[in-house]
């Protein structure tokens, strides 16, 4: 059966769109390429007669096309998201290596994977500071009479702990306003010191935590972080090469998740706004 594709007429398009089989949220959620092909094309013979897979009765054709549309556009209902740890961990490692500010990476990563709404920001939930890491003392070389301040935080994307970070920094290398924000706010360190145009120098190769299973691993969309998957240790330096902070970061397993429920909630939020 030789033929070519031509656009549907406006009458035929209205016929399909107005069918009781093609209405409600299913029509609004239709984004897949098969939907577009079926909805916008018809097949005709050289003699310009319309070819359908059955006799051309308007209601029959409408129901047939609508059933194909709905079959190809059903939203996923399974709560379990399947991810490949090796691939996503490689991506996370590459993103962190390419950007001095881990906060920026987490912001993009969390929004892209639905861990928090697009208008949200990464926050730093303060924890007891603890001792100055020995490697910080060796790397920062504080001037006589100056102390190293330790800031221990859980970096949060919405309700998720995505990174556990210990920062040791030299207050004299920062502005008074930066020091005030570090003491009084829940802003991440990287965001506060961004005006310094700092650079990140890794002190050791990234340490990856072995997974219990490899390949495709099911992760519940609402599961809490289970363990660290990546540990970074780095020295932050000013644009002229002066070290001002040492960081240890433990990135959590929840970052490998792509929660389906979060995407569904986002679609609902867009509908309401």
TrEMBL record:
Name of the featured protein: Membrane associated protein
Record organism: Granulibacter bethesdensis
The organism's place on the tree of life at top rank: Bacteria
Matches recorded under SUPFAM superfamilies: Chorismate lyase-like
InterPro entries: Chorismate_lyase_/UTRA_dom_sf (IPR028978)
Biological classification of the source: Bacteria, Pseudomonadati, Pseudomonadota, Alphaproteobacteria, Acetobacterales
